[in-house]
Write a sequence for this structure.
C-alpha cells in the first residue's frame, strides 16, 4: 500500500520509538498506531531516516490523534534544504518526505526517510 492510501483521520499514536542502535546503519522510527475501525495496534516503521522533526503537545487528554498524513512531493522545502545542506554528498540517497498532522494545535511530525512499512501484530 502507498502511504496516502491509509485512512489516517482519527488514528491514534500510542507510542513512538526511535531506533539508532547502529547509527548510519539502523536509523528507524516506529509508531504504534491504532487505526479507526481496527482492533489491533499496528506498527508504522520509517526506514533509513535521515531527518525528523517532532512538534508534539503533551498534557492533552485526547492524546495525539492524527488529523491527516501524507507523502509530500519532491519539491518539499525541508527535503530540498536537506540536499542543499549536504552539498552533493547525499545526492545519491533517494529520500521521501512524510508529514503527519496532529489534531492538537500545531502538532506535526515530519520525516525524511528512504521508505516506510506497516507491520501487522
Amino acid at each position: 500500500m502507498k502511504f496516502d492510501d491509509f485512512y489516517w483521520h482519527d488514528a491514534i499514536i500510542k507510542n513512538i520509538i526511535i531506533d539508532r542502535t547502529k547509527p548510519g546503519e539502523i536509523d528507524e522510527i516506529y509508531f504504534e498506531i491504532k487505526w479507526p475501525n481496527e482492533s489491533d495496534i499496528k506498527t508504522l516503521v520509517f526506514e533509513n531516516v535521515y531527518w525528523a522533526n517532532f512538534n508534539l503537545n503533551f498534557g492533552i487528554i485526547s492524546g495525539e490523534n492524527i488529523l491527516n498524513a501524507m507523502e509530500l512531493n519532491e519539491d518539499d522545502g525541508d527535503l530540498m534544504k536537506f540536499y542543499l545542506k549536504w552539498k552533493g554528498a547525499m545526492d545519491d540517497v533517494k529520500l521521501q518526505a512524510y508529514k503527519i498532522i496532529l489534531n492538537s494545535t500545531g502538532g506535526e511530525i515530519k520525516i525524511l526517510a528512504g521508505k516506510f512499512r506497516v507491520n501487522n501484530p
